[in-house]
Write a structure and sequence with these properties.
Number of strands: 13
Radius of gyration: 15 Å
Structural class: mainly beta
Order of helices and strands: EEEEEEHEEEEEHEE
Strand content: over 45%
Shape: globular
Helix content: 10-25%
Bound molecules: 8-OXO-2'-deoxy-guanosine-5'-monophosphate
Number of helices: 2
Mean pLDDT: 95
Largest sheet: 9 strands, mixed
Length: 163
């Protein structure tokens, strides 16, 4: 899939498409211990790959329901991120934030959910790039970012933060 980044004025080719969802309640954020897939063992938000013939938003709703059993609505697109791995893999991720959901967070084979104070998000246990953009989208900014990784290690990045 080919995607153009507004900020970097360039087209990039990605192997897979994915989504991430961050649900906010009061001063807390819903995070997961990811049990399988890319980033297994890390803390993240619910999310996963977009299936064929599915929109990013549909994937965000489906993945959140599957992973933590919450139904989300009113998703606000907050970031567009591109990841390039040394082994040739690449992933384009759209990130959504919402405060609207129904249900109670419950574990699944893919994720153990927990509510975390926004002030104490455990960035050390997350992907290395997250500290660069998650605080920005939580502050209401829109982010575009490109990140180059060798396995779990971020080698370089370009980031654009737009109020
Ligand atoms: O289908 P699977 O769960 O394996 O999809 C990978 C998920 O991991 C998808 O939701 C996107 C997410 N993800 C990456 N890289 C990064 C990253 O650097 N930071 C965060 N927060 N999530 C990431 O693939």
């Amino acid at each position: 899939m080919l995607f153009k980044t507004n900020s970097f004025k360039q087209y990039y080719q990605f192997k897979d498409l994915a989504v991430l969802v961050f649900i906010i309640k009061d001063q807390q954020i819903l995070l997961i211990n990811k049990l399988r897939g890319l980033g297994k063992g890390k803390i993240n938000g619910p999310g996963g790959k977009v299936e064929p013939h599915e929109s990013f938003e549909q994937a965000a709703i489906r993945e959140t329901l599957e992973e933590v059993h919450l139904s989300v609505t009113n998703l606000q697109e907050s970031a567009k991120l591109g990841f390039f791995f040394k082994d040739g893999y690449s992933l384009y991720v759209r990130v959504f934030i919402t405060t609207n959901f129904t249900g109670t967070a419950q574990a699944s084979p893919e994720a153990i959910p927990f509510w975390q104070e926004i002030q104490t998000i455990p960035y050390d246990a997350m992907w290395q790039d997250d500290v660069l953009w998650l605080p920005e989208i939580l502050a209401g900014n829109f982010v575009e970012g490109l990140f180059w990784f060798q396995e779990d290690n971020m080698l370089s990045h370009q980031i654009s933060i737009n109020p």
